[in-house]
Request: fold
Amino acid sequence: MSVNPSWQIYATSTDSWLDQRAVAAIRAELPALADEVVRAIQLEVPAYSRPLSGEFGRGIRLGTELALRRFIGDEPEGSLAVYRTLGYGEHRAGRSLDALQSAYRVGARVAWRRMSQTAAALGASAEAQRNLAEAMFAYIEQIAGESIEGYAERQLAQAGDLERRRASLIAHLLDGAPPQAAALHSAAESARWAVPRTVACLALTGDLASTAARRLSGDVLAREQDDVTCVVVPHPAGLEQAGRELASRLHLRAGVGPPVAVADARTSLRWARLALELIEGQEGVLVADQCLAEIALRSSRDVVAALRERALRPLADETQRSRQRLEATLLAWLRRRGSQRAIAADLTVHPQTVRYRVRRLRELFGTALEDPERRFELEIALRSRPRAG
Reply:
């Protein structure tokens, strides 16, 4: 028989432990003691006050008697599995571990009192009875730890299952054709997600983008796709401000999609990703509703790329730095209708610098700068560039 030294209760060589006669007497009382422990638990722990019937009742009664038999060395190590099962059952029943822990304490007190009385009647020393108490509570701590492990395992399993269901839900929302109402509500119910009237999407990039979803209020859904964190935000009032705060605090780039009906979440995400693509370099936020013209350009990339190549061909031989300066000046010239003072303010340069650059642009583009159609093409080409955050 294997005996765990942390709660060994008998030996033959010292009166510090119970002798074989005391253990035999305790063994004979175990069925009655198990019933007494169960009754005490029912009286003192409200969660277990209902009649102990069915699987629940069998589990409590079996667990109690196994605990007592194992304590005196009559059950093998493997019997600990029952206490993991009890912890699992508490999680499945939707309870915390408080009730089970209370039941263990009540059971330990009742069992120690009756065992101590039995041992004392057979002449056990006071020291042996103290050791019995220490062994009992060390043992209860061990089996309570097994129940905690079982409870935690069930938590992890359920969390993993819920995560899979939420991944399926976000796929319903963002992939393929718009979901049918029945399928959407079924997936949402399975994922424990209350379907809102409207949602909006965030598209985030940056080293800490994956943590951003946890900092948003509400029951958000998130996933990683192509190095972008895609977040579905229910009831999105105030999302623009929340996005700006996140981008500033976590050094992110963020595109904010428009509020839409839940079934149109993929549209909000597409716009958010297009807005994100318009930001380059620094962290920042771009709201799709505020840059629809630029998003429209990004939606036809091959056409716009061809237009850019043709419209800006006169700059092809410039150095990269010169081309950047001239492109910025040309866009400001188009937007400000040639006002050198306004252009200088936009670019934070001296008006003389603007005059020099505009003269250079006229040399390169010639009469194209006087043609309304060419100016329109030039503005489209220049506005289609990514912009700083």
